[in-house]
Amino acid sequence: MTFPTATISISALQHNFARVKHYAPKSKVMSVIKADAYGHGVIAVAEALKQSDAFAVARLSEAVSLRDHGVTLPIVILEGVNTADDFQLAAEFNLSPVIHLSSQVDLLSSITLIQPLRFNWIMVDSGMHRLGIRPEDIETALSRLKVSGNMNDEFGLMSHFANSDLVGDIRNQHQLEHMLSLKEKTGLPVCLSNSAAVLAYPESHLDWVRPGLMLYGISPFAETTSAEHGLLPVMQLTTRLISTYDLNTGEQVGYGGDWTAKQPSRIGVASIGYGDGYSRHLSNQSEVVIQGQRCPVIGRISMDTICINLTDCIQANVGDEVLLWGRSELMVEEIANYAGTIPYELVTVLSKRVNRDVKDG
């Protein structure tokens, strides 16, 4: 097998989708598959999640690629588009760019698309202050879009929680209240809940939920793991030992000599590095699992390799599997803590050098 390898479990992915339906049984599901399905391989993931009611991506190019690969479900473009040509392309491919700027409303009022856009969403700035039209301006924007002739009458309101991973934060309730008020005024369906809200705020599920991270078996909460929510990790990242050697006391490892042997030590080298997306922030911080035993990552992460302290795992040999994350022994949430980041970053930055091996799909 090529290594390093990210093994993608389709059965785990479908299990996690079923968990979404368990938590939000009355809501439709817009599965978020942006950024190459969070690094898991978007085409395989889209095929596995075809029970979704819609997909969401970030950019027009992602949506067009899905259409080119035969995906027929509604596809929402969360960042929207900003030129007449891009709106025309969205219409041609039957895509749904989110409207979040008054300038987009102005543009759609001044052009004629080859066919009206369908499955239309307006982003409401309910409190995150990133993308969106303010609540008090929504009804005006909606009226203008309806008379433009470039959108059919299928509209929904979308927003995004800024703090849903902070359970009990009053700001979440404020955002929900904005959306409930608009739902009452307009009678339109609402899509607000991301993964954290699906798990922690059932009152926010409403008409649509928009899960991302939980689909891939990762907890959106810093203090919990996926297993606590009944989720299964979809990605297992592994590689192989390519070398082992002995160090004497006082000898140093890697660039800058950032790790020094305090006793005679056994060292292993594994084939993965920052060129594969394995973060340099894990230098002298992370652990791996070899033959069921945890071993520290030592020295600086190199472009292509990492060094591992095998002193307490002397049975390890060249060719042994090295688990970097993705099983109960070593979850990606823990590795993210070592790196001082979030699991989203670790899985999405894996490079194309990392082989994706799709199982049971």
TrEMBL record:
EC top class named in words: isomerase
Domain Alanine racemase C-terminal: 234-359
Modification N6-(pyridoxal phosphate)lysine occurs at: 34
Needed cofactors: pyridoxal 5'-phosphate
Keyword terms: Isomerase, Pyridoxal phosphate
Pfam family, one: Ala_racemase_N
InterPro entries: Ala_racemase, Ala_racemase/Decarboxylase_C, Ala_racemase_C, Ala_racemase_N, Ala_racemase_pyridoxalP-BS, PLP-binding_barrel
Listed EC numbers: 5.1.1.1
Reaction catalysed by this enzyme: L-alanine = D-alanine
Pathway listed: Amino-acid biosynthesis; D-alanine biosynthesis; D-alanine from L-alanine: step 1/1
Sequence positions that bind substrate: 130, 303
Keyword Isomerase: yes
Active site: 34 (proton acceptor), 255 (proton acceptor)
Signal peptide: none
Family: Belongs to the alanine racemase family.
Task performed by this protein: Catalyzes the interconversion of L-alanine and D-alanine. May also act on other amino acids.
Protein name listed in UniProt: Alanine racemase
Organism, as annotated: Methylophaga thalassica
Gene that this sequence comes from: alr
